[in-house]
Amino acid sequence: MTADPAVALIGLGPRGLTVLERILSRCLVLGPVAGRLRIEVIDPTCTGTGVHDVQLPDYLLLNSSCGEISLFPHHSVAGSAVSCGGPTFYEWARKAGLDEHGRRSAGTGRTVATTDYLPRRVLGAYLRYCLVKLLARTPSYVQVTLHRTHADDVWMEPSGRFTILGRDGLRTTADYLVITTGHTADEPPPAAPGSHRRIGLQPERGPRTQAIGRAQTVAVSGLGLSAYDVVASLTVGRGGHFQRGRDGLRYVPNGQEPTIVMFSRSGIPYRAKPRGRAGSTPDTHRARFLTPAALAGLRQVHGRALDFQQLVLPLLFDEMRLAYGIRASELGGDKPTAAILRSSTDPEALRALLAQVDAAHGGFDARAAFEREPGLGLERIDTYQHWLTNALALDLAEADRGTAASPLKAALQVCDERLPVIRAAIDHGGLTQASLATFFSRTTYQLNRAVVGPQYERQAELLALFAAGVVRTPFGPAPQVSWSDPDQRWVVRSTRLAAPVTGQADWLVDATTPPPSVLRSTSRLLRNLHAHGLIRPFPGLGAIPGVEVDADQHPVDTRGRPVQEIWVFGPLCEGNTYYNHEVPSAGDYSRPHTDADRCVDAILGAAARVSG
């Protein structure tokens, strides 16, 4: 260890920026007594934007509302170490004079609101601003060097220091390594028939659909958020637009759109986000069932590794029933019952009272609302498409009412609000191996469909595209897709419709973003870290093959020991931990900020002990 300890920060998207902010804020609070520190930032652009490139088109929207995002942590997260404090995303956008579309207002639109979903490029501009602000506050005893290159190799020297090689010939050293490289791509599968007419997604670039001709048919595999991006690129991205009239929203094509057919494994659409919600509100649900204390109680009885589906999910359903019962009672004029439901802390008394609420206001089946699987209308094409359209329309009506006026949306929102406890149940060996596999193969998709989006407006637009005949869903769930060499087209065959259907498409778009892999990664850095024994894939989850980390986010090496001088954050850890792709958020809890604060506390503490 030299007199000047060094940190290498590899990857400078939002997660990397949170680490940089924490380092600089803590160094400013500690002052020169902390000693000198060298920070080597290695990233291809060093702009801080990550996948939120400022050149992305406006139709690619954020899935978090404007008021939910902040690069700078709340005092409750970081305590007094916020000396590099700055504006939230909303505060910055408002000061910049942006309207609800993320453009500088020319007097025609309204001022941006906390509930607006802005284009991703606008978040990129905010992150660039944050990086400039942070660098301007760098104290004299901290040296920050930006290296605009890829880190391709890292190894640990006998001295314990790391040597880092960059793609352009960079060679530098560091005592501590923080890896926040985000969604690294995997090697494509071996060339297969039809691969020249198959398009995968690249998060940093948006859908690459330019080769698809207007007279062609494209099959979009997926009904989630990435699929909405693909559809937007093929419609609004081609010059079409939506127009609101007396009969509601309608799509006005411009003739450049292909024919779009969509499908997914489950055949179940995502629910729309409720209108009018931005981050925490005064009416945030107060949990009585799925709590940290309840998890601790389960572990006292069943051991550390739980069965999520048998033990944890029922508590989530209880919370959903409670939120539904409170809202249904209030809207039904039964204020005394709502007051008891809000105040009681006795789980069994609450369950008994909720049974009475069910009898008074109609039963609420939390599991059915969560899973949303029965009654898909699988008899024929028209019955499935009718079911899907009707399901979207009914959910859109609930979303329009918002959580304050929709008991259903209030119940579903609990799934989002209890996310920290759900993570605590799952992370770092919290579930049995079988339960963890079921969670990532099934339950996580149900959670995503329940609460992660899309935005209300996007759901309304999809219905308008159905009505215009631009988008269809003719195959039902889990169709079989194969390439026909004679026809030079994709063949799509239904597998669950009682009356089978077969169709063809010129292009196939995989509208999903798989989690990063260690063993199949295109990242030279990940491959070399594994080759040097510094990381290993999380065992036992072939579908989620990310980096294994311990409870402090240190990677576990190939001998099974945590590497105390390395931290890994973000999508690379998916599987060992849950839901790692969120952006830093405003308010009193933000996992990216909390993770970064713990990491930097450990780094500066270790550096001080060695230097002292």
TrEMBL record:
- List the protein's name: FAD-dependent urate hydroxylase HpyO/Asp monooxygenase CreE-like FAD/NAD(P)-binding domain-containing protein
Domain FAD-dependent urate hydroxylase HpyO/Asp monooxygenase CreE-like FAD/NAD(P)-binding stretches = 8-183
Alphabetized PANTHER family for the sequence: BLR0577 PROTEIN
What's a Pfam family in this record? NAD_binding_9
